[in-house]
Specification:
Distance between the termini: 69 Å
Shape: elongated
Largest sheet: none
Number of strands: 0
Strand content: under 5%
Order of helices and strands: HHHHH
Number of domains: 2
Radius of gyration: 40 Å
Structural class: mainly alpha
Number of helices: 5
Low-confidence stretches: 82-86
Mean pLDDT: 78
Helix content: 55-70%
């Protein structure tokens, strides 16, 4: 209505609005009717399928208990021995095999005293090269706390 006045537009809108609302209500009622028919048909199909199955005294799928198992006691792993490194021999990190370095690091993660002993014997720089700077710093920081923190694992920090 490009050439119509404001009053003419309001009158036309007042006539058209009830028709639009009524049409929408009828469409929605029809859709709900179809939906209810589909739901009733599905319920009837389920009832027929249930009636067609033979009745058993036991469930088709065994019931599995949902309880959690009892916690297992923690077992402390024995610290591995470092091979081919004797107390009387000087430690040269370049001469160590990969397995020997991993043995040193494993022992150090289980017992921080290994790091302190290495620092006392070979120096902090050697300990940083063998165990990594971050690990040595963490062990020294934990030693400065003045108490034993059993729940702390320095390798879990990121």
């Amino acid at each position: 209505m490009p050439g119509a006045s404001e009053a003419e537009r309001r009158t036309a809108t007042a006539k058209q609005l009830p028709q639009d609302v009524t049409a929408r209500v009828w469409v929605q009622a029809h859709e709900w009717g179809l939906y209810r028919e589909r739901q009733a048909a599905a319920a009837q199909d389920r009832a027929e399928a249930a009636a067609a199955q033979p009745e058993d005294d036991f469930p088709a799928v065994p019931v599995i208990p949902t309880g959690l198992p009892a916690p297992r006691p923690a077992v402390a792993a024995p610290a591995p021995e470092v091979a081919d490194v004797h107390d009387g021999q000087e430690l040269v990190i370049e001469d160590l095999t990969r397995e020997q370095v991993l043995d040193w690091r494993t022992r150090a993660t289980h017992d921080h005293q290994v790091v302190h002993g290495h620092i006392a014997r070979y120096g902090e720089h050697s300990a940083q090269r063998l165990f990594t700077r971050a690990f040595v710093a963490t062990v020294q920081r934990l030693a400065g706390l003045g108490h034993l923190d059993l729940d702390h694992a320095p390798w879990a920090q990121a």
